[in-house]
Design brief:
Layout lengths: L5 H13 L2 H7 L4 H15 L4 E4 L2 E4 L1 H21 L5 E8 L1 H18 L2 E8 L2 H9 L5 E4 L8 E16 L15 E4 L5 H13 L5 E4 L3 H9 L4 E5 H10 L2 E4 L6 E9 L5 H12 L4
Parallel strand pairs: 3-4, 3-5, 7-8, 7-9
Antiparallel strand pairs: 1-2, 5-11, 6-9, 6-10, 6-11
């Protein structure tokens, strides 16, 4: 059988990342005609249509989506053979909001100082989408704030995180937790780790907020709370500056809003650079 070449596999992976033949060609140092010809030959060798065109984008077919996890394992394995020292290569991370915005950036910076050849990509989404990105092999390591029910991942508890209820400094709420239910609660969308922890605690206490407003970003919730639209439930990491400045104030409540932050990886082969990053996290003392 005439197998596809390594260059064709790399091009396929690049197109899946950029959804653009021209950008993939540029990333692979190919001319667009050469990339187009390579893609055509790859489809002929595999006997399948790999992409559909939609609004100038190349959308992977189901055949390609099914192929992608195995392809990325192959590329990671190839990289580990060529670069056995595990000090260079691509590190694809996906993290939920709190971890991606407040915890990972300084760690990534320190890691790059030690491993200058590492190219780190970080995608931020909610906890359920983190698991989906790992499932599709679009990321190598995931960081989440919510529970993990699937057994297809290796789960490692990473560190604890605290959620707090906050209001604007001039909201006028008394320090009486019984009145909190009567307020508008500004909270994250379903699928986020913050929402899952909050709903569990509301059910445990038998609480039912009078009105709920859903927003998808912690920063949007902070701004809505600051402008008096209601009370918010946010990670302490996200509001500690505003609390210190007196812009927001923390509200007392019987809710136990602590959660575990977890590191997820697929139960299959992991590239040496990924293993090196995990070791780095331990050595950084952030567990």
């Amino acid at each position: 059988m005439n197998y596809p070449s390594p260059r064709q596999w790399l091009l396929l992976d690049a197109i899946c990342r950029y959804h653009s033949l021209s950008e993939a060609a540029q990333q692979q140092a190919l001319s667009q005609p050469a990339a187009s010809q390579a893609l055509k030959e790859l489809e002929q060798r595999l006997g399948a249509t790999l992409f559909l065109r939609q609004n100038r984008q190349l959308i992977p077919t189901q055949y390609t989506l099914d192929l992608l996890p195995r392809l990325r394992q192959l590329l990671d394995l190839q990289a580990s053979i060529v670069q056995p020292q595990s000090d260079s290569g691509e590190l694809r991370l996906v993290a939920s909001e709190t971890i991606g915005c407040y915890l990972l950036p300084p760690l990534m910076a320190k890691f790059r100082q030690q491993y200058t050849g590492a190219e780190i990509r970080l995608q931020i989404c909610n906890s359920s989408e983190v698991q989906n990105q790992l499932r599709l092999q679009q990321a190598q390591l995931g960081f989440i704030e919510g529970p993990v029910l699937s057994t297809e991942f290796l789960l490692q508890y990473w560190r604890k995180d605290t959620l707090v209820l906050v209001a604007s400094a001039d909201h006028g709420l008394p320090d009486d937790a019984s009145q909190l239910q009567q307020q508008t609660w500004i909270i994250r969308e379903r699928g986020s780790g913050t929402r899952a922890v909050l709903e569990h605690e509301l059910a445990r206490c038998g609480w039912s907020p009078a009105k709920i407003m859903e927003l998808q970003r912690p920063e949007a919730i902070k701004q809505a709370v600051r402008h008096g639209l209601g009370i918010g439930c946010l990670p302490l990491l996200a509001v500690q500056d505003e609390l210190a400045q007196g812009v927001l104030r923390q509200l007392p409540s019987p809710l136990k809003l602590e959660r575990q932050l977890s590191l997820l990886q697929h139960q299959q082969y992991q590239a040496p650079l990924v293993q090196q990053f995990i070791r780095f996290l331990h050595q950084a003392g952030v567990e």
